[in-house]
Amino acid sequence: MNIPTPHIEAKKGDFAKTVLMPGDPLRARFIAEHYLEDAVLVNSVRQMSGYTGTYKGKRVSVMASGMGMPSMGIYSYELFNGYDVENIIRIGTAGALREDLHLRDLVFGIGACTNSNFAAQYQLPGSFAPTASFPLLRKAVEAAEKREGLHYMVGNLLSSDTFYSDSNLDVNWRKMGVLAVEMEAAALYMNAARTGKQALAICTISDSIVTGEATNSAEREKSFRDMMELALEIAPE
């Protein structure tokens, strides 16, 4: 793949081996400004801000993915294939599908169900099950166990192509034990599988499909620090 890519203007070597990927460019900037030392802006194409700096001595990058599987599919593909990135940790938001998941709880996506046709490109003779990389998942659980007062669950996410839907199918996914709905993890997991790289989705519950509770945009940008800090702690060098 030629560098720069069609969607990333960075030079070879500008990205660390591990990239944290929030959906929101403003969350990427918030992490760079509040957690990374000597952070440098390495991408601003389409305002998808990407930064590289250090966190407790290790080199880490953070870059926005945008919303939805097509956007995540583009950026994670180019990072894995063009910039030699080895690990991508999605740090995004999700809507709870269970009553015992509350605002600001974390969900670690061991798998990502989807209503998308993203996997059709692989021409497989069946359905592919997108899953997280176990080494990253294990590190996340171990780190979460050490954080006092942190409530988290490990299980399936639903990566949906639709935010506004004519059909209310959430109850059917809930019957299958799916914890929360978001819009990017399945594409990330499939790109990681295809390239032999590692990926994990860590999602903060920003709203509840069950109870109607919700956070606002400012809270989603700046207040989900447990997710940000945990991802930075587990990021491989």
TrEMBL record:
The active site is at D207 (proton donor). A purine D-ribonucleoside binds at H7, E182, M183, E184, S206, D207. Catalyzes the reversible phosphorolytic breakdown of the N-glycosidic bond in the beta-(deoxy)ribonucleoside molecules, with the formation of the corresponding free purine bases and pentose-1-phosphate. Residues 18-228 form the Nucleoside phosphorylase domain. This is Purine nucleoside phosphorylase DeoD-type. Homohexamer; trimer of homodimers. Pfam families: PNP_UDP_1 (PF01048). It comes from the Bacteria. The record marks R220 as: Important for catalytic activity. Belongs to the PNP/UDP phosphorylase family. Keywords: Glycosyltransferase, Transferase. PANTHER family: FI09636P-RELATED (PTHR43691:SF11), URIDINE PHOSPHORYLASE (PTHR43691). Its EC number is 2.4.2.1. Signal peptide: none annotated. The keyword Transferase applies. One of its GO terms (molecular function) is purine-nucleoside phosphorylase activity. It catalyses: a purine D-ribonucleoside + phosphate = a purine nucleobase + alpha-D-ribose 1-phosphate; uridine + phosphate = alpha-D-ribose 1-phosphate + uracil; a purine 2'-deoxy-D-ribonucleoside + phosphate = a purine nucleobase + 2-deoxy-alpha-D-ribose 1-phosphate. Transmembrane segments: none annotated.
